Amino acid sequence: MQLALKNVTKTYPNGVKALDHIDLTIEPGMFGLLGPNGAGKSTLMRTIATLQKPDEGELHLGDINILKQKMELRKVLGYLPQQFGVYPKMSAEKLLHYFADLKGIGNKMEKKKIVDYALEVTNLTDVKDKHVAGYSGGMKQRFGIAQLLLNNPKLIIVDEPTAGLDPAERHRFLNVLREIGTNNIVILSTHIVDDVKELCNDMAILNGGKILSKMNPVNAVEDL
Ligand code: ADP
Ligand code: ADP
């Protein structure tokens, strides 16, 4: 499966051209979208996630025409927005069971299996009985990923996930992404060069709504 964007353009009502004829092809693996604040990263991520519409352009994920088949896209999408959620005083495990119920994963065995897997991959098994409201920023980010994994997504989008994390938490978080990036398309949107350098096998640089270059992260990072 491949994500293909063609000529994606968005101008906000205030005249800001946030996306300027974006052409981009993304293969399974870890893809880094690198760019400074205001580059258009969030606009692009929200557009791929069907949360906003471009003025022009086409987006396809495999057979799915994203602009015409919103629901099909959403079934295979895991999107972690920049500032993620408010959390109730409920343990991580209970909350994940609750979300699994909402998704209609009815079978008890299956539910336990997928919740245990999500906790395991995100390294939260040891703290599964603690309230998510009391988690650190990094633990909350990892919980956000655990929640996405209940859907078994094929396309995962994370927007500036390491902002504000201390080095140890940042490392743990990147390891979680590495784990889930092997079979899926994972797009990491960030202004932190090292996130991309450590993790991604492909990348693009976005600035002023334009793709400046699409290259191998190792070469790119030497040029920055
Ligand atoms: P990034 O995620 O890279 O920081 P954004 O996509 O949030 O970039 O923003 C790109 C540009 O569009 C910025 O100049 C921003 O101020 C502007 N922008 C973003 N959202 C809106 C909006 N809803 N209305 C008007 N301008 C916006
Ligand atoms: P990001 O860092 O992801 O670009 P921002 O903090 O810039 O996020 O934006 C947060 C929210 O404010 C978003 O919903 C964005 O669309 C909106 N926004 C950003 N810039 C503008 C702007 N110049 N005018 C109106 N809304 C904006």
Automatic annotation (TrEMBL):
<comment type="similarity">
    <text>Belongs to the ABC transporter superfamily.</text>
</comment>
<protein>
    <submittedName>
        <fullName>ABC transporter ATP-binding protein</fullName>
    </submittedName>
</protein>
<dbReference type="GO" id="GO:0016887">
    <property type="term" value="F:ATP hydrolysis activity"/>
</dbReference>
<keyword id="KW-0813">Transport</keyword>
<keyword id="KW-0547">Nucleotide-binding</keyword>
<dbReference type="GO" id="GO:0005524">
    <property type="term" value="F:ATP binding"/>
</dbReference>
<keyword id="KW-0067">ATP-binding</keyword>
<feature type="domain" description="ABC transporter">
    <location>
        <begin position="3"/>
        <end position="224"/>
    </location>
</feature>
